[in-house]
Amino acid sequence: MSMMRPASTGAQPPRGGASAGQVPPSPDTASAGQAPLKASLDVARHELRAAITRGAGGRAALEHYADRVDALIRQLFTDAGGDAGPVAIVALGGYGRRHLCLHSDIDLLVLFGGGIGSAEERFVHSFLNPLWDLGVVIGHQVREIEDFQVLERDNPEFLLALLDARPVAGVRSVFERFGTIFHQPETHAFILRSLLALIDERHARFNGTLYQLEPDVKDAPGALRDLTATRTIALLTDPLLLRRGPADAARFDDAEDFLLRVRSTLHLECGRNQNVLSHELQERTAETLGYPGAEPRLRVERLMSDYFRHARIVSRSLEWAKRTAPVPVGTNLGLSRDGVRFIDPMQAARNPSSWLGAFQSALDEGTEVSEEALSCIQQHVDRYRADDFFADAHDRTALLRFLRPRPGLYARLSQMHDCGLLGRVFPEFQAISWRVVRDFYHKYTVDEHTLLTIRNLERLITTDSGDRLRFKGILADLQEPELLVLALLFHDVGKWRDDDHALESERMAEHVLDRLHIADEQRETVLFLIRHHLRMSLAAFRRDTEDPDIVKQFASLVGTEERLKMLCVMTLVDVQAVSPETLTPWKAELLWRLYVDTYNHLTQRYGDERIERSEAGLNELLANRPEDVTPGEISRFLEGLPQRYLHVFPREAIYRHIWLARDIKPDEVHLSLERKGAVWSLAVATLDKPFLFSNICGVLSSFGMNILRGHAFTNPNGLVLDAFEFTDEERFLELNRDAHTQLLRVMQDVVSGRAEVTARLRGREQGILQARSGQRFAPLVHTDNKASGRYTILDIVAGNALGLLYRISRVISRHGCDVDLVLIATEGEKAIDVFHITKAGAKLTEAEQIALTSDLQRTLEGTV
Amino acid sequence: MKLLKSIVRPNKVDEVKDALAKLNISGMTVTEVRGHGKQKGHTAIYRGKEYNVSLLPKMEIEVVVPDTIAEDAIKAIVQAARTGEIGDGRVFVLPVAESYRIRTGELES
User: Fold this and answer.
1) Residue B22 C-alpha, separation from nearest chain A C-alpha, in angstroms
2) Do A799 and A668 belong to one domain?
3) Can you tell me the distance from the alpha carbon of A52 to that of A40, in angstroms, rounded to the nearest whole number?
4) Following CA atoms A174, A176, A178, A180 in sequence, which dihedral angle do they give, to the nearest 10 degrees?
5) Does chain B have fewer CB atoms within 10 Å around its N or its C terminus?
């Protein structure tokens, strides 16, 4: 039976597969031009028959026969004009292994380097037809190289046969390109899983025993298929696997040769692809293979005892391979009982940028890197320099992914440190290896203290201890927690010197960040955390945090909630890593209080801190301004905006906003749209009017945008600047060429009152995809008149939903309130919005607050 | 001898220590404590949710001083720990009957 089967879809000839069962045209119709080919095939078959008759139909004879067939195929390929195009003929399965038995199918892949058109179809016909005419049974598949980009999961037998692929004719580079595309770790893993399942199925057909009285020498347990499968498992997982197995290579090869000789005899005797060693055939086979014995019974007994001996070796080897083979988990990486190891240590030794992959796989699989792999790294690590580990952007992205806090990271980093890799990748870290700093509180060397901070971080992720849950929540909210790990790794490297270490650590970390080509914004964050890593504990434990000035100073140091969150978690895990007793509930409480006070200051008081002409941050903006922006324009734009604006936006974004706001007239809307990975940033400039914020949010929602974060600012001249970050899950912006124009047009129509957003939204809100599966969070609405000098602060926490901001801000506007500033954040399913509102230029009265909150509460609960 | 048990703001510990050092009082026990007196804590709001901070973090400093300097020591503590706001803390003064040095077993007077 062929290993091929027809492709399940699109089987229009000649593409797809043809089963071996296809009836070939009679050899009599062979054209006269085929006579030499027919003759050479006959010679090849004759030779093989003779060898089989001598009892020598084993490996050598079959390989010789396969070579003869190769030559025939090459001739036919040339005759069919194959040399003209990028095409290769590839032997698969048994023929690929050169174990071509007398009546086995010849499994071929016709592989095209480019697309398949009519010329290619003509070639396939003129190549295959003569083969059929010769009476050869063929299992063929026709593919383009690009087809292999997608794994054919529905045809594992074909994938298995491809593992034996061997180029026979045509363009070598086409075959090589196929190899590069096909041999992927995921593909190998899939094939391995499929193979194991196929073995189980096949064994079940034989009741799981190799001791069959009439064994099938191809399919029975311990027979040829098991032998191939054993080798395949080794190939996919560890080429040296069988060397450690129960049978040495010579015994394994003997078994193979024996089974092939038996199979050859069966083919010869039966004149067809027949593989069952029946009672009747046992006698003839014993005779052909030259078993001694006075009578047939004795000869058969000897044959069968040989058969069982070989089958047992195969069977034991297979079981052993199944048990011990590492599972492929990445390129050149296998997972075995002792952890992740390099399948080919020599190759790994030459490729240091692949080492991180071992640690990443171990993290993913929840295991460790094996001792063997660690020794390999340790042995070779000194040959490489820091840059060798991060040769390209891909390696650097992989490192940041590796540093995302999760259980096991500490243990993997410790392994990296122990084998010398961490210190080689980061010579800066090496400076604190085993460094002892004598003081009254630290209990561990500086390197271990550093790694323990990361262990504390990963433990925080899974903690369920009451007083840590609040910090766990902060950590879970971080947008780029890997930056925190990066900062922790280097926060104390300056301790190699004895004086003020934070600045020295920052200086050293700059070199690391340079090498990693970390983006500016992320770089600033990491350096900020390192430089100020002692500031929060100082303020929380040693300063009077009841004093609003202390909180204000600390808030202006951190600037944004994100940095506050990072510094808070950093402080917690750092203090905790000093000694087991250092982080008392008392200290945790102080830290938490400073966090809350600062968070509230940042989100509720920022409206009171406005940019003034003398602002320090302005100088830098003025100095670097683009040619077409005047200093006057910058100060006119910024004056009266909250200082927070300068903290939140980088310089380039501010210039972009200035351009947007230029010459804006009533009812006009100016937009700028930018994409950063999966997240889109939209900046909207317009002049203030009632219901504006609600309308803008409504338009975004009506396009299906999911708003993640954002700010709305109003300056004293009535200029409104809204900045949103959102995901476009329906890919409207990506798929529509004129999406930007459409969005702008609808926004302008709605803002100017020419169109209504409610109707646009209604369909979506009632849509089946938006069906709310019960409110997961009881919505929270809270107003505060004390936090800010100018505004009533409205805090809202609710389950995130399409159009949520629209609905909230509409209620606010209906109450006659002005939305002056808005802070939008989401954390998973939760939306956290802080509105700064006024009514007729003043804070809301008690009664107005009550009316607004109860109205909002009803809206959020969906009761109106 | 008197035992002075002072509850002070956490950020005032160093100042109290310095003030006592000026009176040549160097032996002391410092403990992190939580509690409340007249300053009954306050209600903090985080993301719209109220949570109660009824037990406030404070530091407790214990020193034993001879009767002769007890009053100076109390004054020093009060001056160092005082901000004038609610929550500055307390100094409790307790008589000490006897005191033994553990290392030598001797009775101190």
Assistant:
1) 21
2) yes
3) 18
4) -140
5) C
Give residue A418's pLDDT band: very low, low, confident or very high (50, 70, 90).
very high
Chain B neighbors of A782, CB-CB under 8 A: 45, 48-50
Number of H helices, E strands in chain B: 2, 8
Within a domain: A3: no
- Which of A778, A783, A812, A811 has the alpha carbon at shortest distance from A795? A783
Kindly state whether residues A851 and A705 are assigned to the same domain.
yes
A441 with A508, same domain?
Answer: yes
CB B83 to CB A587 under 8 A? Answer: no
- Residue B68 confidence (pLDDT) above 60: yes
Residue B47 to residue A795, Cβ atoms within 8 A = yes
Q: Which of A589, A604, A619 marks a domain boundary?
A: A604
What is the spatial distance between Cα A72 and Cα A557, in angstroms, rounded to a whole number? 80
Handedness of CA A329, A332, A336, A339 (dihedral sign): negative
- A166, A197: one domain: no
In one-letter notation, the amino acid at residue A837 is I
Count CB neighbours of B104 within 10 A.
Answer: 8
Nearest-by-Cβ selection for B48 from A542, A544, A797: A797
Cβ–Cβ gap A596/B48 under 8 Å:
no
B39 → chain A, closest CA residue = A546
Does residue A617 have a pLDDT over 90? Answer: no
A643 shares its domain with A681: no
pTM exceeding the 0.80 threshold for the entire prediction: no
- Amino acid A1: pLDDT: 38
Domain of residue B21, CATH code: 3.30.70.120
Tokens of A753: 């009152």
Helix, coil or strand: residue A674:
strand
Cβ partners under 8 Å of residue A465, min gap 6: none
Mean pLDDT, chain A, rounded, equals: 88
A582 and A763 Cβ atoms separated by less than 8 Å: no
From B63's Cα to the closest Cα of chain A, the distance in A is 21
Q: Are residues A648 and A557 in the same domain?
A: no
Mean pLDDT of A686-711: 90
Under 8 Å CB-to-CB from B71, ≥6 apart: which residues?
none
Structural domain including A206 reads 190-325
Contact status of A830 with chain B (Cβ, < 8 Å): no
Of A554, A553, A560, A480, nearest to A523 by C-alpha is: A480
Residue in the block written with tokens 């195009």: A85
Residue of B nearest to A589 (CA): B57
- The reply to whether A785 and A814 lie within a common domain is yes
Average pLDDT over residues A435-460: 86
Residue A365 domain flag: no
- Record the tokens describing residue A238, joined without a space: 């560890």
Hey, is the C-beta of A592 within 8 angstroms of any chain B C-beta?
A: no
Range of the domain at B54: 2-108
Q: How many domains does chain A have?
A: 5
B36 touches chain A (CB under 8 A): no
Asked if A824 reaches chain B (Cβ–Cβ under 8 Å), the answer is no
Q: Rounded to an integer, what distance in angstroms lies between the CA atom of residue A363 and that of residue A361?
A: 5
B10 neighbourhood in chain A, CB within 8 Å: 541-542, 590
- B44: chain A residues, CB-CB within 8 Å: 593, 596-597, 600
Tokens of A471: 């910090």
- Quote the CA–CA distance of A515 and A382 in Å, as a whole number: 18
Which residue carries 């879809």 as its tokens? A9
**Can you tell me the ipTM of this complex?**
0.76
Same-domain status, A656 and A689:
no
Domain boundary among A604, A621, A646: A604
Residue type for position A60: A
Structural domains in chain B (count): 1
Q: What is the DSSP string of A796-820?
A: EEEE--TTHHHHHHHHHHHTT-EEE
